[in-house]
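Justification of computing resources. Each target in the renewal requires a structure prediction run like the one illustrated here; the chain below, 317 residues long, is used simply to show the kind of job we budget for.
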Amino acid sequence: MFSLKFISGKYQGGEFPLTPGKQLIIGRSPELELALVEDMVSRKHAKLTVTDDGRVSIEDLGSSNGTFVNGEQIARPTRLKDGDRILIGTSILKLVKLDAAQVQAQQSGKGSSRLATLKPNLETVAKVASQRKTHLTSVTGRIEELAVADLLQLFGTSRKNGVLCLRRDDGEEARIYLRQGRIYYAQISSAPGCGPLKSFRRILRWTSGDFELLPPDTTRFDDELDESTDQLLLGAHHEIDEINRIQEKLPFTTKIRPVRPLEKPLRNLTPQLLDTFQLIYNHIGTIQQALDYARHSDFETAQAIVELMEAGYLQRA
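Resulting structure tokens:
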């Protein structure tokens, strides 16, 4: 058996159980069993079908704003699998397969407080959510439930406008600016001078925290990004893979400084290595601070620091 878990939107935190052998209409109309009361949802928006053997599919019913599965707008009945994400209005729903204990608890009407959210009492969830300081019409949720890259793909295909605000649990905040689903700027509060591309690639490494889609911002930036979302994500994922490869060798909290006395001749260094050495010489501190000051990408700078340490030009402070 499956359940629909609301991981974003007005009903975030709620779950709705799916019954085999039943069709379910999702929409704004209050008489529907799964009623999503918000402006971007049509009165009868989509139909979800669960076969007797538990297979789940969804079909858009000619809605004004469309139905999206894993970031792609659907035009015909679409089979769903465990973990698939559905975007309807501002709500993102995740198809979750229930384990044996959850199925038994649902069928018996008993269970823990966690399982109690399986009851279709979504308006109660919405009232709790309304007490948070957030926009009820915006998309909100946790990065643990929906990775930043997946979120941006959803926004890209649904052509969202606005500012994606992300807040890590340690207080760090970042913003990604969207225009018709296209990413045109990114910034991190603690590193305002990093530039939009470096900031965007860092944000993609975030794995926990809250996100919220705020209304559009009219601010214009001189150095707006002009690559497509797919190109930006591809570059970010490549850098993430490369940084992960050297992460154990080079923890970003490590403090470094030039070797003194320096016996190695500087003339042996390439221009990029020489620039990195000068950077460390001028700004002795952690590797993270060096990355903030560097004009090169995080991976290029980190790789250069590794080479300089292995060649005897830099050392741990």
